[in-house]
Amino acid sequence: MFHETLDSFPKDFLWGAASAAYQIEGAFDADGKGPSIWDEFTKIPGKTFEGTNGDVAIDHYHRYKEDVKLMADMGLKAYRFSVSWSRILPEGEGVVNEAGLQFYEDLVDELIKNGVEPVLTLYHWDLPLALQEKYNGWESRETIKAFKQYCELLFERLGKKVTYWVTFNEQNVFTSMGYRWESHPPNVSDTKRLFEANHIINLANAEAINLFKEMVPEGKIGPSFGYGPVYPLTSDPSDVLAAENAHDFNNAWWLDIYCKGKYPVTTFKRLKRMGIAPTVLPEDEELLKSAKPDFLGINYYHGGTVKQNKLENPTENEETNKQFSSTDPYLMQPKDEQSQSPEVPMFQSTENPSLEKTDWGWEIDPVGFRVALRQVFARYDLPLFVTENGLGALDELTKEEEIHDDYRIAYLENHISEMKKSISDGVDMIGYCAWSFTDLLSWLNGYKKRYGFVYVNRTETDEKDMKRIPKKSFYWYKELIENNGKNI
Ligand code: BG6
Asked: Could you give the ipTM of this predicted complex?
């Protein structure tokens, strides 16, 4: 029998775990912090599971030392976290809140003291509410100026201490959820506005990268993209073409801009015919081409499967669209009805008969992880940093205060094993951050859907003592880090 000979993980591979400010910090109005769009959105009845919000979350703001101590106990090499923009600029621009900057500097110092490499995300979805109210948020170029001020403050303060920076987290997800499915702020369903706002975010991403290169020449910066490979349901060439279309629309639409500075031509032409293409000024093209990321962050949960779209069955198509709305942002179809376009949708999402699913209906597809890493590396030739991958599951705390999350260990082990194969295939990988370090607030699913290596004792309705309890997966990951993935 043929066995693959696998390379070892690089000596300085960054084994890490991740989080995001709104999902862990709490302290939503402490020490001068201003409100973000999420502080407002989560208070709209019916938007989140059991009305949960991040006012308190898991109180990381007050307990960060305890959390970093646990990272050190685990031997974690890297910790990815995000900065809350409105903690630093309560109005989104203008007056600076020194206490906010100090909090993140203290966190970074604590990480470094404990031998953990900080990986800083500039934008993980919590836009200052003031910018939404004043400018309509990402629909205005004024917000780019505000973003530049925010970036400049952080580059100045932390540029010497933090090497790895992520610009935007999953731009594909937050724009689609926010401007199409009304399941994130700003709670809009309008594809024209979606593509205009998305273009402005592309410009903000490029500006941030160029500023970074000037101010932090030794550092590394790149966006984190929610990538999923797209499979054709069958070998029927029409299904294969549908998969190509879906890839262009869901992946290349963002990655081509980040890496080549231009939109993929097929999708752009199509959106143009539908009257929903973004407004691209000549100077935008220049800016987008000038900004080169140092690496690509990849968040991988799963891909998707599509087939040729048959117009004669529009109801089925509508059903599938609904199914992918709030719980599964990773595979979307253009919403033609809005533009009143007679165009046939480019593909139709469907079930993959070969894959099992999590309790929340997300496909479990470790081989797809290898496919994803291979595809992105081959197309864009940049080092990859896995900035998220993990399993959301119901965890049970036993009487002995233990969590036997063997299912999470199996999930992570299978994915890490495929990542190791992709390294052996030649993919250049910087590190891997599992989602997440501690349990945290799911944007839409409360505290039931847990991802952490560390259990946090609280529920949707009862904050309890928020005690941190390492799960079985904590000790498993600790050992894996110790031997640098040798036994995988
Ligand atoms: C990613 C986000 O899309 O998925 C994370 O970057 C998020 O912030 C994670 O928590 C899991 O999503 P969910 O909906 O299962 O909590």
From this structure: 0.98
